[in-house]
Design goal:
Blueprint lengths: L2 E6 L17 H10 L5 E3 L5 E3 L1 H9 L4 E6 L5 H13 L6 H15 L3 H13 L3
Parallel strand pairs: 2-4
Antiparallel strand pairs: 1-4, 2-3
Length: 129
């Protein structure tokens, strides 16, 4: 469903949006600076924004001129609105336990204990993944 392409941000048309408050973009901009825009925004074939307004705004504020987008063709205005709304309603945030687990894993990758460092060294020598 849809095709991916790169487009100049200035070519993206923004119509009326359901979301009025985009919130604080500080963390999103930090993430985009570090990793880029990880999920493409959705556009119609006429370059009208369906979803990804916060990502688009953050990228624009960072001075990014082009973005990878996914172009899809909603069959009507109802489907267009559903796509805009569902992207923000359907997703599920991490639970507190999942977030803690992720932080522990990151810490062990950034600062592994001596046994992990030895194991990582052995894996590198023998090409183990």
């Amino acid at each position: 469903m849809g095709c991916k392409m790169v487009i100049k941000i200035k070519e993206i048309k923004i119509g009326k949006r359901v979301r009025k408050d985009i919130g604080d973009l500080t963390n999103l901009k930090k993430s985009i600076r570090k990793h880029g825009v990880m999920n493409p925004i959705l556009l119609t074939p006429d370059n009208e924004l369906i979803s990804g307004y916060r990502r688009l705004t953050a990228a624009r504020e960072l001075g990014i001129e082009e973005l990878e987008v996914k172009v899809i063709n909603p069959k009507d205005n109802v489907e267009f609105l559903e796509m805009e709304m569902e992207e923000n309603m359907i997703r599920k945030d991490f639970s507190q336990e999942e977030l803690l687990d992720g932080m522990k894993k990151k810490k062990s990758l950034v600062s592994p204990n001596i046994f992990q460092r030895i194991w990582n060294f052995i894996k590198r020598i023998f090409g183990i993944r």
